[in-house]
Amino acid sequence: MLFLAASSLENISIGDAGIIALLGYATVFAGLILLMIVVTIVGKIFIASSKRTAAKTTAKKPAAKKTAAKKPSAKKTAEKKTTAKSTTKTAAKAKTAKKAETDAEE
Prior knowledge:
single chain, mainly alpha, 3 helices
């Protein structure tokens, strides 16, 4: 049957070829639109089911106790800053000493 359709399309006018091409494009785009609709619907179904599952699991768990988070004291924060500064100063001194030794050797 395919050969019969192919033989009838051997000598067609430009207008007929244009109509056939447009029908082909329309078919492809209609298929793509249907595919997008299906994917959107399936996505909404999955989102709804995951929300439902999350609601069930949170309903089953007992409420967790809330504890106040301790803020670090100002003294500890200051100690961390001075430690970081002294480490940086020590690294800079070591680098300067190493450079001096390299210059002395040359």
